[in-house]
Amino acid sequence: MPRYREIYESLRQKIVLGQWPPGHRLPSEHELARSFGCARMTIGKALGALADQRLVTRRRRAGTVVNAPRPQESVLEIHDIEAELLAAGVSYAYQSLERRVRRANAADAAALGVPPGTPVLALTGLHRAGGQPHALEERLINLQAVPEARAERFADISPGRWLLQRIPWTEAEHQIAALNADAAIARRLAIRRNTACLTIERNTWRDEQRITHVRVIYPCDQHRLVARFRYGAA
Amino acid sequence: MPRYREIYESLRQKIVLGQWPPGHRLPSEHELARSFGCARMTIGKALGALADQRLVTRRRRAGTVVNAPRPQESVLEIHDIEAELLAAGVSYAYQSLERRVRRANAADAAALGVPPGTPVLALTGLHRAGGQPHALEERLINLQAVPEARAERFADISPGRWLLQRIPWTEAEHQIAALNADAAIARRLAIRRNTACLTIERNTWRDEQRITHVRVIYPCDQHRLVARFRYGAA
DNA sequence: AATCATAATATGCCTAGACATATTCAGAAA
DNA sequence: TTTCTGAATATGTCTAGGCATATTATGATT
Lengths: 234, 234
Fold this sequence. Notes:
Two copies of one chain form a homodimer. Chain A is 27% helix and 36% strand. Chain A is built from seven helices and ten strands. Chain A has helices at residues 3-16, 29-36, 40-52, 81-87, 106-112, 159-166, 183-189, and strands spanning 56-59, 63-66, 73-77, 92-103, 119-129, 132-142, 171-180, 196-206, 209-219, 225-230. The interface between A and B is large, with 48 and 48 residues.
């Protein structure tokens, strides 16, 4: 284990075990360098890592101070449906239900964040796992940003995959919510009306330009999201 | 802007805009140091930041290689209910519905991950916003890990807050799912039976020891989780 | 007592070099 | 041809110094 990591762990222990409570000011880099017997830059690297983890706040002249624990913040992984199912040994298929090129109506414009009238590709499709419906996907693609999508049929290739491999994106936003399945959703997912579903909406940007909007709907017993967080870990 | 950050941004652009596609090998640190006119350590810092963001992979002798874009991975912030509502200018209150000290039954043991028979504190409470029910909380606290909770009434202080301020935790896991409200949930949240609800389950550890398990249930129109992600950003 | 300029201090960033180590590549041996 | 061995190479880490800059503490002035 490199020296800076040893120092990082040593300091982290003091914080996590409460020996240095929130608000406590750490010794200066010079002092730590002396006590650990290393160069100041090595201490700087260790303290920088603590700051990256939000365990401490560093300000010039003010020094390095232990933070209060964050309320909740976690790394969420939203997996690729296809890859996930294949990894679990379940067969996967994407089935296109609807494909339409149109000028954005008011709803499209709001969802995708483009002016009404912009050409969009609207896709509805079903992700199947082991033959059974697994998730329903409703997607809008901004044809101004991705003109080559106009020529693609998306008959059995998931548009998510297709986009991911072609279009670099720079920003994404997810919204996670619950909804009661209406008649149309229930029919397509082969579930009873009013069944609770988990929805994930995702908006994707490439440098200010909106690429796609997608809403994926999972029946409540088919999917849960898992997020794991280690306080102050790498 | 510091030099290493300029270099980071410059390299990031090349990757994000597709100029350097996945698999492309970056020039060596020595070459970059020469072309940017700086010390190798400064380049190392920039490349290290790119690696932290998972934009590149670095291996000795093999060099620094551009990664394929991640499928989806995002930073999820699960906010403190109380702080969130207060920030929105809505009055907040916690109301205890049930408080019981018992030896863990099979369900408790499974949820909290402790052996059956372990003393636990089981709490049910309601978060109210503007007088109206906002979320239902079901919580188990491991009294072996947090003995001081036995003396606390939790009549109007949210146990989440109480714990957060007292007990340092080192690891947490969230599970997000949807469910149909059953009769008991519907009554307490003053919603109709079968209304879709978003649930967040959270398990918290302190160095291997389980501290608490909590399930928070939000009616579908009361809450959505938002996660935002900038590809390769700080 | 209050305000303001100044000095002290801790971090932020940088350089130029060094040795360590993992990995690859090329050439030698089987 | 295959396998093995050693050299080359790129990163990983570290040192010992330096200047820059934000912030605080101090002391002087009003």
